[in-house]
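Worked example

This section walks through a single chain of length 194. The input is the sequence exactly as stored; nothing has been trimmed or padded.
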Amino acid sequence: MKAKLLTLVVFVLIFSAANAQSFHLGIKGGANINKLTGKSFKDEFSFGYHLGGFAEIGLSEKFSVQPEVVFNEFKQDTSSHFRDIYQLNNLSTNIKLNYLSIPILLNYKPSSILSLQLGPQFGILMNQNEKLLQNGKDAFKKGDFSMVGGVQLKFSSIRVYGRYALGLSNLNDIDKQDKWKSQSFQLGVGLAIL
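Given that input, the structure is written out below as tokens.
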């Protein structure tokens, strides 16, 4: 089902690009301020980063679609409740998760420099370390579905943006005792190359 949906989205984006009023490609990067919610994690935000690329496909004077491919790093510490819930040995308390995120955002431009952004984001867990919670591969599900909203300022070929991503998926792949969901603020700069 996911493969069919992704194929449909790619087809629509290619069709839109072919008929676009404007088309831009660029690179982007910045800071992530994120946290995982649930009794297992400390109720605090931590810092990471993101790097990637974007396309901007103009649909009309006011609307465009902005698909992106972004590498995201998330860091989090477990809370003291984690050992009580799961009673695991050799537990690492520091967690680092690396995701390949694919947001598909609809941009609404109320002015020539301001865009309001909203859309879905699918994240694919990229870690390869198999140790429990040291790098997240065994404890966390491989996918994270989120909704993203934000603001982007456009100055010629430079984009400055701020976003909030709210995770809708339960990331806990151990059991159903505690629900883990992601939250993230992103601040960054992009540069349109084409």
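What to look for: The chain has a mean pLDDT of 83.
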